[in-house]
Specification:
The protein has helices at residues 2-17, 25-40, 48-76, 79-93, 96-111, 115-122, 135-182, 194-218, 221-231, 240-251, 279-306; strands spanning 254-256, 259-261, 264-266, 270-272. By secondary structure, it is mainly alpha-helical. It has one domain (2-306).
Length: 308
């Protein structure tokens, strides 16, 4: 039961410690990524192919050395070192406590009627413009963030740890970080960030669908599966729509709709069904993620017992 033990201990460490405010490894990685991007993402050559190639080279230079080193270390080290190494890597990769803290900070501001503070707090977890958001828009943005980041920051990390150990979870977390930095369809990143975005899509494809099944199993399963089937393909990207449509259905709320991005109003498809989200639904979304974590732990236990 070493796998279950490792996942459980990593989650406990994250629950107790959370993300370190200083000296987080991903901060240093992000600085290195910014420096390399500035060197390789130059505009003297307008060829999209060459820009994509430079983006792929940058991804490989940033991700593969550490992954290969961890793979080599796992082969050479004792099982005790492997377990400790895996726990440390997974604890740094998951972001359960941070996700819950940010979501509850928004809901607490809304419950006290401080709309200005709620706007500032939700702006920390979403990329849209929240400076003029009303309570409904803030509820939607927060719940969407909880559902999507539950998949990205928790379940996908656990999935790749279960599949490939410490190298797998580091491969995923670094790739996901580069997608968050470069995976934008802007003039600067549309070509250069193409490889980072596509690799992240591949790494998230199965975890996103397993996360959606988890949300459905602990919520309104009929509405969740119906929303997945009908609405998921309407959303941009191959993974976010699946997670958010299913999560919205599981909560029996409506997400999506109009949102402001970079000063422009963007009409997004409606996801889910039922009522407009209320402040209490933010806490329900957090509970949905937490219940899904329990489901994943039970599946890992059963998998180790019957397969390993």
């Amino acid at each position: 039961m070493l796998l279950t033990f490792s996942v459980l201990v990593a989650l406990i460490i994250d629950f107790i410690v959370g993300e370190p405010r200083r000296w987080h490894p991903l901060v240093g990685f992000g600085n290195a990524a910014n420096g390399l991007e500035k060197k390789l993402n130059f505009s003297t050559n307008k060829s999209p192919f060459l820009s994509r190639l430079r983006g792929l080279v940058a991804w490989a230079l940033l991700v593969l050395p550490l992954v290969i080193f961890l793979w080599w270390l796992e082969k050479k080290a004792s099982i005790q070192v492997d377990v400790v190494l895996g726990i440390i890597c997974l604890a740094f990769a998951v972001g359960s406590k941070s996700l819950v803290q940010h979501a509850r900070a928004v809901s607490e501001a809304l419950k006290t009627g401080d709309l200005s503070l709620a706007r500032k707090r939700v702006a920390m977890i979403v990329s849209r413009d929240t400076s003029s958001s009303n309570e409904k828009a803030i509820n939607i943005a927060t719940i969407e963030s909880v559902l999507e980041n539950g998949s990205d920051a928790i379940f996908a990390a656990i999935f790749w740890f279960v599949i490939l150990g410490a190298p797998g979870v580091v491969l995923y977390r670094l790739s996901n970080t580069l997608d968050a930095m470069w995976g934008y369809r802007t003039e600067r990143f549309n070509s250069f960030g193409w490889a980072a975005a596509r690799i992240d899509d591949v790494l998230n494809w199965l975890p996103a669908r397993l996360t959606a099944l988890s949300y459905a199993s602990v919520g309104n399963i009929t509405a969740a599966l119906s929303s997945w089937r009908v609405q998921a393909n309407r959303w941009h990207g191959v993974n976010p729509g699946v997670v958010m449509a299913t999560g919205a259905g599981a909560l029996s709320v409506k997400l999506g709709g109009a949102a402001m991005y970079h000063g422009e109003k963007v009409e997004r498809p409606v996801l889910g069904c039922g009522s407009e989200p209320q402040v209490a639904d933010i806490d329900r979304a957090v509970q949905l993620v937490n219940k899904s974590i329990v489901i994943w732990l039970l599946v890992i236990v059963l998998g180790e017992y019957f397969i390993v």
